[in-house]
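Exercise 3.2. Students should predict the tertiary structure of the chain below and write it as C-alpha cells, then compare their answer with the key that follows.

Predict this chain's 3D structure.
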Amino acid sequence: MSSTREFKQLEHKEHVMTNLRNFKDNSVDKFKEASISHDLHLKEREENKRLVEEAKKDHRVCVRGACSTWMEVTGGVPQGSVLGPICS
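Answer key:
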C-alpha cells in the first residue's frame, strides 16, 4: 500500500517538474522575442532621430542651374521616415 502511495507522489512530482520546465522554456522564449522586438524598436528610433537631425540642415532648391539661397527647413517629414505615412 505504501509503495502505491509513494509511486503516486513520485508521479505527481514528475508532473510538477515537467510543468515547471515547460513554463521556464516558454518564459525564456517569450523573453527572447521581447528582447528582439525591443532591439528593433531602438534601432528604428535611432534611425528616425538621425533622419530628423539630417532634415534640420539647411537646404536649397536648384532648377536648371539656378539655385535659391540656403535656408533652414522648418517643416515637413524626411523622406524614408516611418513617420511619413502618419504625418501625410
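Discussion points: Helices lie at 2-55, 84-87. The mean pLDDT is 75.
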